[in-house]
Design brief:
Layout (H helix, E strand, L loop, with lengths): L3 E7 L6 H11 L5 E8 L5 H8 L3 E4 L6 H8 L5 E5 L7 H6 L4 E5 L14 H9 L4 E8 L9 E8 L6 H24 L2
Parallel strand pairs: 1-2, 1-4, 2-3, 4-5
Antiparallel strand pairs: 5-6, 6-7
Length: 190
C-alpha cells in the first residue's frame, strides 16, 4: 500500500527520535507510508516541537474521560499507529479499530527484557545485569499486554564487555531508527 498514513503516539518525556526516524523515512521514500499526525499527551512533550519543526500535524490528547474515543478522532484517516516512547496500554477501542496495525518498538530482544516497567535505562541495566551476550531492538504488534504482540522484526548487536546502560542504549537506538521503518514497510506488504 503506497502512502499509508501513520499516527505516531509519543509519551510526555521522550525526545521523539524514533518518531523523527519514521517521519524522515516517509518523506525520503524509504517506506511506503508517511506520518500524518503525532499524538502527544501534553504540549510540553519534547517530541511535539520536533514534529512541528518537521511540519507534521500534532494532536494533544490527554488521558482521561473518553480517552479512546478522543484518540480515534485524532487518528482519523490513518491506517497504522506507531508507538514511540508511549508507555501506557492502549484503550481496547483503539486496538479494535486498528487490528494488527498498531506497532511498538522495544529497546531489547523480546520476549526477554520486556513487560510492564521495562523501558528506558531499566531495560539496558537488566540486559547487562543478566550477562546477556547480545541485545538489540524489537518491533512488534501491540495487544492488550505489554510487549506481548507478534514480533515483526529484530535487529541484534553484541553487548561489549565495557558497555554501560548508557553506551548500550546509544548503540541500540541506532538500530531502532533502522528497524522501525523496515518493520512498517514489511507490515504494509503483508
Amino acid at each position: 500500500m503506497d502512502n499509508a498514513r501513520i499516527a505516531v503516539m509519543v509519551g510526555p518525556k521522550g525526545r521523539g527520535s524514533n518518531m523523527l526516524a519514521l517521519i524522515r523515512a516517509g518523506k525520503e521514500g524509504r517506506m511506503p507510508a508517511c506520518v500524518e499526525v503525532v499524538i502527544a499527551p501534553t504540549h510540553s512533550a519534547p517530541a511535539v516541537q520536533t514534529a512541528q519543526d518537521e511540519k507534521v500535524r500534532v494532536a494533544i490528547v490527554e488521558p482521561g474521560d473518553d480517552y479512546g474515543a478522543r484518540l480515534l478522532d485524532a487518528m482519523e484517516g490513518c491506517r497504522y499507529v506507531c508507538l514511540a516512547g508511549f508507555l501506557r496500554l492502549l484503550p481496547e477501542e483503539v486496538l479494535r479499530a486498528f487490528p494488527d496495525r498498531v506497532l511498538n518498538i522495544h529497546p531489547a530482544l523480546l520476549p526477554d527484557f520486556g513487560g510492564k516497567g521495562m523501558y528506558g535505562a531499566r531495560v539496558h541495566e537488566a540486559v547487562i545485569a543478566a550477562g546477556a551476550k547480545e541485545s538489540g531492538c524489537t518491533v512488534h504488534l501491540v495487544n492488550e499486554r505489554y510487549d506481548d504482540g507478534r514480533i515483526l522484526l529484530q535487529k541484534r548487536l553484541e553487548v561489549a564487555p565495557d558497555d554501560t546502560p548508557e553506551s548500550l542504549a546509544a548503540r541500540v537506538l541506532e538500530l531502532e531508527h533502522q528497524a522501525y521503518p523496515e518493520a512498517l514497510t514489511k507490515l504494509t506488504r503483508e
